[in-house]
C-alpha cells in the first residue's frame, strides 16, 4: 500500500529479459539517506508495486511479469530513463496523499502540456467504456488519481467517444522531484483510479 507521495526518482541501469519477464536494475536513490531497503520489500515504480529481488547496495533489481508489462509503461523503459519510486506506506505516519495500491489499471497518453504562471497543467487521455465506468474506472472532479505513482487531484474529468480525459496541475516542487519533468505530448503514463470509487461502483452493481 502506498500514498502516492513520491520519495525519489530512480534511474534504470540495465534491463534483462527472461522468457515473458523483465528484470529492471535501478540505481538505488535511498542509499544516500540510509533509508530502509531490503530484499522482498515492495517499492512502487511509476505507481507499479514491484518486489525487490536483488539488493547490491548502490543497485537493486525488481522483476515485472508479462501482464504487468502489458498494462503499464514499464515495458517502454530504456536504460537511462527515470521512474518515480515510493516505499510502502507505514501505518504510523500521516497519509499525505491518498490510498494507492500500486495496481495500475491502464496506461494513459499525455495530450497537452502547458506552463501556467510557474506551475504545469497536464491533460491525459485513456480508453473508456460503459463497462469500465460501471467497474469504477473513471475520474470525478476534485477526486484523487495516481499518475506514474503521483497522488494528484482531478481537474476537468470527461468521457466522450470511447475515451476518458483527466487533467492535473503540478506545482514546481512536484515537477522537480518526479518524472513529470520528462512528460511531454505523446508520453505514456500509468494511471490508477481511486480504489474507494471502484468499491462503490462494484457495490452498486451487486445491489441492483
- Give the low-pLDDT segments: none
In the CATH classification, which architecture of the largest domain applies? Answer: Beta Barrel
How many strands in all?
A: 13
Provide the β-strand percentage band.
35-45%
Q: Work out the helicity level.
A: 10-25%
The gross shape turns out to be: globular
Give the quaternary arrangement of the chains: single chain
Taken in chain order, the helices and strands follow as EEEEEHEEEHEEEEHEH
Q: How many helical elements?
A: 4
Question: What is the CATH topology classification name of the largest domain?
Answer: Elongation Factor Tu (Ef-tu), domain 3
Largest sheet: 7 strands, antiparallel
Mean pLDDT: 94
Radius of gyration from the CA trace? 17 Å
| Number of discrete domains | 2
Through-space gap between termini: 30 Å
Can you tag this structure with a few keywords?
208 residues; 2 domains; 7-stranded antiparallel beta sheet; globular; 13 strands
